[in-house]
Write a structure and sequence with these properties.
The structure is a single chain. By secondary structure, this protein is α+β, with helices and mostly antiparallel strands. It contains 15 helices and 22 strands. A hairpin with a 4-residue loop joins β2 and β3 (about 160-165). α1 (about 5-20) runs antiparallel to α2 (about 25-45). The longest helix is centred in the N-terminal third of the chain and has 19 residues, at about 5-20.
């Protein structure tokens, strides 16, 4: 055995020991092919054997390389090379060196980043986690052709993968949400033209030719957020209507409501720039939020559409996800920022607090339309000629009518319990004037502390024209009322709570401090001072 072989063998052993321990991993990894090639050339002249022996050893070595991803496997492959070089010819050894180096290059090349995918690029392996699966909603169900997945890579970049919805059963057996895969044999195409979920120029079209090889890599993030700012919202109402991710602090949560037979819940959040955003959660998304102990927490929502009704709003889609205190690295930063914000209720009370007299002036001057205010007032009269509750059909949302021991709808069969809603016409008074208002469900619920459903069913108050003590007891108690002026100039009370003392601004001590008067001298003291 030539003496140089011992040198190479000892040197490479040292190199791979350091490689496995980690301090010089990258350097040694780049150096290892040179060492392997040097060994092959050193002993090619003494090799003499058949080609098949060389490639059998090569196959075994490459297997180790593939399993150990170029670390221990490459070292074992190097030993296999030495055997092959001593058994094969010079040409065979060169072929072996070339093959082994190509194998090493293949298994050590980092996967392509999702952010680098461009339309019409040939497919390259992508290592990703599947974050979610959804079918985009269209009013015309004939257009529901896409089955969509959101994929995220190690760097947190995301891209959509789109399949044929008619093949959903096949893909559901192949792809599991929150599992990691090496994805290949896809077609890179431009991103979807309507309501894409991420701002990527490309998306992946996948069919039965695409491969999803399971990948045991827990370092890939299990979330993806690309939060928009308030200034980003208005442009997203125009095509392609990019779906919006938003984060804020929860200020208000409504109970479950129904509109045209669809279930919904409304949430009001405040972002870090004090912008107020109303979020509507539709259908099953309304059940993703519980109302207990949620006010003031960080709220992250994904894949919403931007709409406008008097102000910018967000609405859920079929791909929307919601997280309370989301698992993001800078969560504490958001928590600290939101803690510095004044609650919206207090902001409204301080900025839009109004007397009844001033409110009536605004209505008369047509400057109060669609305005929101707070007013500290008392219920002084209840309109006994009007009803204090009504019943809605849970399917269509239209009024339901009593029929013996049940309620019926003109259009639908009510198979579940109907929806009971307060609606009380009353007069409120403060120290400036009086006006007529309508107390809606949440407002009266906040005063009597009993839900309308319990008032009717559990307490046996089924006649909406008979006012029980629980209703009449609301008179004479001062409340902080959240009111809105409607288009017809009627006044709606949407919320009622106990009055809060609004602290006045702290006075400037330099401007308001009273100077201490100078001591007064007696007449004899003034004369003595003058003579001196």
């Amino acid at each position: 055995m030539p003496p140089t072989f011992l040198f190479y063998n000892l040197f490479t052993t040292r190199v791979f020991t350091l490689f496995l321990l980690g301090p010089s991993r990258t350097f040694c990894f780049l150096l290892s092919p040179i060492i392997v090639a040097a060994i092959g050339l050193e002993f090619a002249s003494v090799a003499d054997n058949r080609l098949n022996i060389v490639f059998k050893v090569c196959l075994l070595s490459s297997l180790f390389v593939a399993i150990f991803h170029g670390m221990l496997g490459l070292h074992i492959g190097m030993l296999g090379l030495h055997i092959g070089c001593n058994l094969g010819s010079f040409e065979d050894s060169l072929k072996f060196v070339t093959l082994l180096l190509s194998i090493q290059a293949a298994v050590t090349m980092p996967p392509k980043r999702v952010s680098q995918v461009k339309p019409e690029d040939p497919p390259e392996p992508l290592e990703v986690r599947v974050l979610k699966r959804w079918i985009p909603y269209f009013k015309n169900k004939e257009k529901m052709l896409d089955l969509c997945y959101l994929l995220v890579d190690l760097h947190g970049d995301a891209i959509e993968a789109v399949a044929d919805v008619t093949k959903a059963e096949y893909f559901d057996s192949l792809i599991k949400v929150q599992h990691c895969y090496t994805v290949d044999k896809y077609v890179s195409s431009p991103s979807r033209q309507y309501m894409p979920s991420v701002p990527h120029v490309a998306s992946l079209k996948i069919g039965k030719r695409a491969t999803f090889t399971p990948l045991l890599d827990k370092d890939i993030p299990n979330y993806h957020y690309n939060f928009a700012t308030y200034d980003d919202l208005a442009p997203r109402m125009k095509p392609p209507k990019l779906l919006t991710y938003y984060i804020g602090r929860i200020e208000e949560v409504s109970p479950i409501m129904y509109r045209s037979g669809k279930k919904l819940r409304k949430i009001v959040i405040q972002d870090e720039r004090r912008n107020e955003i109303e979020v509507t959660l539709w259908d099953e998304k309304a059940d993703m939020i519980q109302t207990e102990d949620i006010i003031g927490k960080v709220f992250a929502i994904t894949a919403t559409t931007v709409t406008y009704f008097n102000k910018l709003q967000l609405e859920s889609t079929t791909s929307t996800t919601i997280d309370i205190n989301p698992p993001i690295p800078d969560l504490q930063t958001y928590v600290n920022r939101f803690q510095e914000l004044m609650p919206l209720a207090e902001q409204r009370a301080s900025l839009n607090h109004i007397t009844i007299a001033d409110l009536k002036k605004k209505i008369y001057n047509k400057t109060a339309q669609q305005g929101h205010y707070t007013c500290t007032a008392t219920i002084t009269e209840i309109d006994n000629l009007r009803t204090w509750f009504y019943v809605k059909c849970p399917k269509c949302g239209k009024r339901a009518y009593p029929e013996k021991d049940r309620f019926v709808c003109l259009d639908d069969d009510i198979e579940e319990e109907p929806i009971f809603m307060y609606c009380l016409n009353a007069k409120i008074t403060d120290n400036t004037d009086s006006t007529e208002v309508v107390f809606y469900n949440e407002a009266l619920n906040g005063i009597v502390k009993v839900s309308c459903r319990d008032m009717v069913i559990n307490l046996g108050n089924r006649n909406p024209k008979v006012f029980r003590d629980k209703i009449t007891s609301a008179k004479g108690i001062p409340k902080l009322l959240h009111i809105a002026v409607r288009n017809d100039n009627s006044i709606a009370v949407n919320k009622a709570e106990n009055p809060r003392t609004i602290q006045p601004a702290t006075p400037d001590p330099k401007k308001t401090a009273t100077k201490r008067p100078l001591p007064q001298l007696s007449e004899s003291d003034r004369k003595a001072k003058h003579q001196a």
